[in-house]
């Protein structure tokens, strides 16, 4: 404790006012919009970063496969020393022994035909790049969906806190009325206790909601990389929403542009190419090449000229026609059939999932309409019960029940709005309509 002595009261009052405003600004709540949360999540997400890294890996693999179209060039140098001499000295012709020689060779080889393995391998890498491109986009959609779900969960809890605050204000006012009536000897003490019990239950609910909101905020902050602060609040509130049929057309069950369906199509295509790759081991392999060789000694001026040689090779894998390669090809053909069956099965599930998300969205909108009606009924009922109670036509229990019903209806409306937002994002996610 401290005291401030000031002869000029007007000055002291101004100083305190300024300090109060500064403190209020310092402790002011910080608002977080949905768009800010989306941007932060896209910049922070490790899933998106990994998706981009996998795409880079696929592009590197494609460049590596392209190199198979070019010749393979090798250079070889060999030096040899013989303790007993390769060639002993020959009078007049060879004055010294030859015990050290070298061999230098350069070879370039180009595969002319390998059963289509090179071309097939490059097609597989093209598919790998395409698939990882789709998955990178899907990781962005997934992050946006999760961010929206976490954000609207936070909004839902904030709106529920507002409902509880309204109920608390109502019970506080009712409690004050009961205390006045009890002091006047117009009611029994148990009626005052009834209101206190309801108020205590409400305070407990308020405390739980506060902790749940902090937990939801922490979840959102950790997912988006936003610094956690209990003063941070979602800026969005409950607002009017349009009926789904007014915003979107009926779901299109043509899956040609559906990313999950495209991945399955590429899976079938890749399986066929892998079968073709396995069959290439049954065909002859033809290669041509060119080499240049030079042989010489270290101490004597004896060496050959560079000897250019052109050559061609043909390799016929005869044993592959009945060995393990044949069984490997059979396995690949069976895997190809499995991939085609999976495409048909998942195609049906994707269509069902799209329609399910559409019906869920319609149901969520109906839930809002019914919740709005229930709130109107509950508010009217509470008003009637309060008037009747003040007139002595009903008891306190009926009034408290009406107040609880009104609170439950308001909470249900908040839940309905948040659920609609989540169902809408889920529908857009399943139909690849999320805006990135």
From TrEMBL:
Keywords: Cell outer membrane, Coiled coil, Membrane, Signal, Transmembrane, Transmembrane beta strand, Transport. Gene3D superfamilies: Outer membrane efflux proteins (OEP). Residues 329-388 form a coiled coil. SUPFAM superfamilies: Outer membrane efflux proteins (OEP). GO terms for cellular component: cell outer membrane; efflux pump complex. Residues 1-27 form the signal peptide. Its main location: membrane. It is found in: Cell outer membrane. InterPro entries: OMP_efflux (IPR003423), TolC-like (IPR051906). GO terms for molecular function: efflux transmembrane transporter activity; porin activity. Belongs to the outer membrane factor (OMF) (TC 1.B.17) family. This is Outer membrane protein TolC. It comes from Pustulibacterium marinum. The lineage of its organism: Bacteria, Pseudomonadati, Bacteroidota, Flavobacteriia, Flavobacteriales.
């Amino acid at each position: 404790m401290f005291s401030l002595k000031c002869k000029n009261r007007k000055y002291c009052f101004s100083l305190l006012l300024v300090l109060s405003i500064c403190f209020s600004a310092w402790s002011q709540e910080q608002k977080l919009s949905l768009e800010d949360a989306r941007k932060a999540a896209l910049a922070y997400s490790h899933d998106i970063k990994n998706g981009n890294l996998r795409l880079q890996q696929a592009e590197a693999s494609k460049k590596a496969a392209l190199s198979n179209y070019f010749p393979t060039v090798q250079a070889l140098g060999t030096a040899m020393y013989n303790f007993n001499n390769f060639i002993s000295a020959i009078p007049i012709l060879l004055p010294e022994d030859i015990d050290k020689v070298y061999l230098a060779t350069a070879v370039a080889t180009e595969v002319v035909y390998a059963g289509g393995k090179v071309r097939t391998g490059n097609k597989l890498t093209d598919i790998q790049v395409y698939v990882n491109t789709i998955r990178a986009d899907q990781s962005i959609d997934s992050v946006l969906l999760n961010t929206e779900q976490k954000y609207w969960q936070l909004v839902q809890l904030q709106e529920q806190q507002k409902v509880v605050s309204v109920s608390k204000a109502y019970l506080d006012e009712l409690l004050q009325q009961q205390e006045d009536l009890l002091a006047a000897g117009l009611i029994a003490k148990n009626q005052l206790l009834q209101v206190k019990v309801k108020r205590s239950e409400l305070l407990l609910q308020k405390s739980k909601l506060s902790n749940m909101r902090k937990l939801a905020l922490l979840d959102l902050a950790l997912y988006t990389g936003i610094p956690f602060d209990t003063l941070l609040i979602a800026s969005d509130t409950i607002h009017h929403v349009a009926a789904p049929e007014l915003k979107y057309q009926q779901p299109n069950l043509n899956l040609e542009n559906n990313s999950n369906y495209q991945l399955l199509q590429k899976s079938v295509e890749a399986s066929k190419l892998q079968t073709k790759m396995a069959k290439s081991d049954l065909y002859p392999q033809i290669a041509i090449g060119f080499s240049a060789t030079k042989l010489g000694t270290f101490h004597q001026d004896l060496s050959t000229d560079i000897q250019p040689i052109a050559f061609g090779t043909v390799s016929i894998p005869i044993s592959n026609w009945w060995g393990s390669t044949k069984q490997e090809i059979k396995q690949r053909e069976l895997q190809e059939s499995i991939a085609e069956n999976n495409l048909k099965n998942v195609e049906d599930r994707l269509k069902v999932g799209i329609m399910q998300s559409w019906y869920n969205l319609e149901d969520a909108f109906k839930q809002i309409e019914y919740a709005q009606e229930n709130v109107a009924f509950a508010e009217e009922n509470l008003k009637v019960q309060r008037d009747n109670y003040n007139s002595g036509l009903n008891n306190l229990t009926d009034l408290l029940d009406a107040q609880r019903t009104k609170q439950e209806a308001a909470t249900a409306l908040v839940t309905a709005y948040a659920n609609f937002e989540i169902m809408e994002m889920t529908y857009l996610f399943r139909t690849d309509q999320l805006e990135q």
